[in-house]
Design the sequence.
């Protein structure tokens, strides 16, 4: 069981209209006939500390096109301090796909920033560990992952804290960055 169960979120949404047609390049095709009747699946891996309603705006874009969406939001504390729990979140994603029999669906993965990239890494490891393969048609990198350095941590924390003084943000960044680096060193030994 995850210690941040109340903040870790995975949402699976099916489109409301299964009979919808899509017009692409003067060709109208029924979405159910694409890829042998399998509905396209979009896996959205959110940025750290994303808010559900913001991620729902992204999923709605795909749902309006008739795609199935699967959103994963990772808590800030897990991303910064307890990356070992990321394995559990990734396994939950794999289990959701398996329970809903979505492995053969054409899949697009959209990931946002460092949080999404981190989730993507653990998700791919979980798929490999379970010997499962997705029918991935593409990966979208939105807000490319940034280098892990003090300056980028500071900017992210300052924005997430919304209005916190720069001194407080710098102090929080220093403690998080130092703690994270120490964890990396301890894992190496």
Sequence:
């Amino acid at each position: 069981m995850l210690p941040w169960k109340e903040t870790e979120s995975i949402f699976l949404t099916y489109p409301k209209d299964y009979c919808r047609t899509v017009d692409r390049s003067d060709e109208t095709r029924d979405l159910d006939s694409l890829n042998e009747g399998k509905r396209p699946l979009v896996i959205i891996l959110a940025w750290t500390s994303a808010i559900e309603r913001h991620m729902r705006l992204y999923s709605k874009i795909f749902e309006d096109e008739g795609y199935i969406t699967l959103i994963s939001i990772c808590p800030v504390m897990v991303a910064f301090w307890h990356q070992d729990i990321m394995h559990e979140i990734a396994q939950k994603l794999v289990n959701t796909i398996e329970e809903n029999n979505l492995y053969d669906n054409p899949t697009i993965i959209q990931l946002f920033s460092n949080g999404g990239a981190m989730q993507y890494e653990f998700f791919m490891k979980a798929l490999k560990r379970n010997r499962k393969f997705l029918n991935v048609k593409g990966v979208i990198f939105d807000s490319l992952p940034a280098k892990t350095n003090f300056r980028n941590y500071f900017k992210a924390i300052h924005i997430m804290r919304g209005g916190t003084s720069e001194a407080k943000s710098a102090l929080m960044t220093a403690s998080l960055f130092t703690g994270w680096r120490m964890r990396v060193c301890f894992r190496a030994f």
